[in-house]
Structures are given as C-alpha cells and as structure tokens.
Amino acid sequence: MEIIVCKTYQEMSQAAADITARQIDRKANTVLGLATGSTPVGLYQNLVKMNRDGIIDFSGVTTFNLDEYVGLPKEHPCSYHRFMFDNLFDHINIKMENIHLPDGQAPSLENECKAYEQMIAKAGGIDLQLLGVGHNGHIGFNEPGTPFESVTHVVELTQSTIQANSRFFNSPDEVPRRAVSMGIKTIMHARKILFIASGKEKAGIISKALKGPVTTEVPSSVLQLHPDITVVLDEDAASCL
Amino acid sequence: MKIIRGGIVYQGDEWKNDIDILLEEGKILDIVPKGKYNEGQAIDADGYFVCPGFIDIHIHGCAGRDVMDGSVDALEDIARFIAGHGTTSFLATTAASSREATRASLKAVAAIMKKQCRGAQILGVHLEGPFINPEAKGALAGQHILPASINGFTDLAGEYEGIIKRVTLAPDVEGARELTGYLVNKGVVVSMGHTAAGYDECIEGIEWGMRHATHFYNAMTPLKHREPGAVGAFMAREDTTIELIADLVHVHPAALKIAVGVKGCSRVALITDSMAATGMDDGEYFLGLQEVVVNQGVARLKDSGNLAGSTLTLDKALRNMVSIGFQVNDVVKMLTEVPACITGVDDHKGRIEKGYDADLVILDKNLYVNMVFIKGNWYGINI
Ligand SMILES: [Zn+2]
Question: What is the complex's ipTM, to 2 decimals?
C-alpha cells in the first residue's frame, strides 16, 4: 500500500488526477471505476481541465460507477447519474456508450445487479477503481456488516448514511432508502485502487480503515488486503495515522 | 505478516476456538493462542469458521467456461469463480474429445500453471476419458472414446504428460491393465469410472492400481446382493477412496450417507463435476462438444437426457451435506484433507498446520464464504 499525504484538498485532488491520467496514458482503453460524493469533486475538476488541455484523452475510456439510488429518476438533481454528468461526463470527450451507472429505476433490480456485474466482466474488469470513504467506513454503499463476498446488490441504507446524505436533499425524508451498489468483491477485483479522503472528520475512519483489523464492521478495512492500492490524503485526513 | 484472528479453526478433525493463524510468504507460519502476537495485519475472524481451502479434484467448468475451451482465459475465469466459493486448488478436468481439442486444453493448463494468476491454483489435469467403456459413457462423447494403451495415452498427452495427475479409466476396456501399470508407475492417480465391469473385474482393476472411484455410484455398475458391481467392490475394499457429487441430484441423500458410513469420511472426497452453467442462468450450454440443457440448475444432455455434470460449487456441497445431517467438521475433511491425500499434495495442502500453504476459507455461521486466502493472499490476488 502506498500512502501519499498532500498538504491541501487541492493538492490531493491534483495528485489523484495525475494517477488517473497515468493509468489512461498507459492504457488508452482503461476501464475506470468511479465514485460520487464531495471528495472526488476536485479530482474531477482536474480531469476536466487536463482533458481540455489535451493531457488526457477519454475517447477510449470506459467507466462504471459504484452506485446509484433506487427510485430516483436519472435527471433528479441528487441522482448519481446527474452528479457524474454535471461534474465530469458533460465536460470530457468520453463516448456516451462507454458510461455505465447502475439503473436504480430498473424494473427488476435483481436482474440489473446481475447485468451490471456481467457488463463489468465483459469490459475486461476494472483497471482503476476510485474510492472515497463514508464516516462509518462504508465503500460504495456497502455498509458495516456487508459480507466481503458481496457482488453488485441492492442495499438498505443505514440511518447514518441517510442523515449524512440528506444535506444534498431538501429533507432526510426525501433521501431514498435503498441503493444499488457494487459489492466489496466487485471493488476488490479491480486491478488497482485509488483511495482518497480529505478533512479532519475523516481522520478517525482513515486510521481504522488502514491500520485497524480487517473486519466487516469497517468495510474499507478490506482494502488493506488489496495488492495494488494507492491512498491519497490531505494532512487533515492523515492526522490520526 | 497477516494474522487471521480469533476464528473457530478447523484443526485435526475438530474446531478450536480463539486461535490466531499467522501467515507469511504464502505459508502458515504458526498457529498460536489469540493475541500472542500483535505485529502485523490483523484479519478479524471472530465468530467465523476458518477451514483449509477446498480442493476440487473433478471439475470441468463454471461461469460459462469449460476446461475444453482450451484457452488460458477460460481457465482464469474458472479459477476466479471457484475461488469465490472456497476452492483454492483444483484438477482441471477434461472430457473425452478429439486429440486436437484435448491437446489445446493441456497446453492452456500448462501455460497457466507457469504464471501467477488470480484465483484457485491448478494442481494439474484430470483426464476423464477417452479410455472408458462406451456403455457407461454418461455424458461423455461416444465418438471420442478409445481403447486404452500406453501409446494412445502418450500420443494424447504429448509433451504435457507431466501435468496429468489423474486419469479416469474403465477396467473393462482393452489395454486398461497395461495403461494402469504405466500410470501408477509414473505416480498418476488412476481412478475407475465410466465402467460396465462387474465386481470381479473391478476388484482386479483395484489390484492393478485403480484405487479411487470416479463419481461413485454414477456411470458404474450398482450394488446388488448377488452382483455387488463396482459400487460393491469399492465398498468392500478398504484400501480405496471414492468421490461423491453432493448436489443432492446425482446421488440420493441416503446413498450419500451409506457411502460415507461404509467408507468413513477419511476415504471420501467431495467433488463438483461441475460444468459451464455453474453460476449462470438456466439455458443451453456445452459439456466439451456435447449440447446440454440446464433446467433449474440440473444439467442434462440434449439428446439422451443423461445427467451432464453438475452446477454445484464446493461451498454449496458443504451446506448440502450439513443440511442432510452431516457434521461440519466431517464435511470439511472431505473437502480438504481427503482430496489433498488422493492427489498427493497432503504434505503442503489440505490442513491448517505450520508450514502448510496459506490456503484458507473463512465461512460465516451459515457456511457462506466470507473471505478466501490463496497462498496468503486474499482471493489469490497477487499480481
Ligand atoms: Zn466429470
């Protein structure tokens, strides 16, 4: 495991973008696993800029997002579809058909989960998976207690996650109760993982995830077992290491 | 160093609580009381069963892939899929086919054995056919069945003879004695199967060195009280081992109990004999070159309706056996130690012991796989 500590959120975002750019440079048809949330916004801004400056070419890149809410229309301002298009896809030269997010409105969620796994496999597996971490250690929407064996599945969100995400909605009541998420096994089978975190409030969970015992109680702790993971933190997030 | 901490550990036929297993460089470094060492990466196994990795000595395919696809890709997909079900090593099993197709499969296995890859490790090849009795071909392709001979074997194996660890052979085909002698001499496991031979002929075969029975009960002569058949021969002879497909379709639960009751669990290996449809939806598949229809997880040949391999995984086999009344520790033995012994890898696999390969399966209390370590790496991810 390689841990890179940057001074600020901006530097962290640039460092993570550089790693992503190097991956795409090495393999033009890279399969990226992408994440949502506030942490990767800066990284995405850097990628957009690097694409505009001709440093990265997304024309061969395929993406798979970690998760999506169940029941939220794609156009909904809080959907992860919308987030990804607003923050990244609308501003880079990626091909529409190469973008994948779970469909939270699929008539059969069970089939959607299966199909999503199959699409990832068909694309040759994920080359680089970007990850952030929740306050309780969740990765994707894999909450504490999720078996490490899990593949893409429907998740009942915990109260703490609903609370944390309610800041994006008008009220906690509007936050969907379920989501479709890649499983821990899906994530762990990525060839390389890029794990990013920033801010004082993440310092405790980062220390647990990277230095604590590997346990399903802290889903991100499983990342310690991945053979090729790079962790990029700002100084605040690294303050308990 | 990794520490598998505080699990319920299968050791020497029984479960031991509050044990830490120390892993280093792909091996089990030591087994110590919980908390003795704190240096290293702890993996919390509190409340979980920790078993040696399962060993499948008879598997044709899964995840839409077949060993007879003859490609490294197919083998990698198989290896990764079964690793998720607790299998950490296996014998890639061929189905009787043309010389070219068999060669292609052997070549692919030889290639994958040389490189490091994710998933379960391939211990070698199990040739199922072509030296079998067409009357008991089961789901094997009749047109590719051959009489047995040393020349026939070496011609088929070519430069890949060294990776063939097991051959299924019928004692009642021409040349079986000669070929058995040759293989036993080379240290290859010769197992009796796909045979119409009666009791006496089977006992003779056992004398030649056929000390293991391929998918016991299936594709062999049954036990009748005046004609004990192949089933009777292997039940009567204590110096033999058998293997069972524990999908509760190929063999009736009572027949599973009878077989284990007679042989004892230290002489029974559980296998999958699984084919490409394993882990996939119902539909049409191939077993080798034969068309197979899978309906509710049961695979049958399209033309004859014969059972055509299973869609079983070994973790499911464990749960099946427990569901019909077997003790978890006895079933684990049949998934680990026994197949390790049969294939002669029991000096470094199949047990949780100091110096053994760090192949481990961590199961939750419902016997579902939670984590798999292959040579000390999670899932064998080591590239
Ligand atoms: Zn078979």
Answer: 0.77
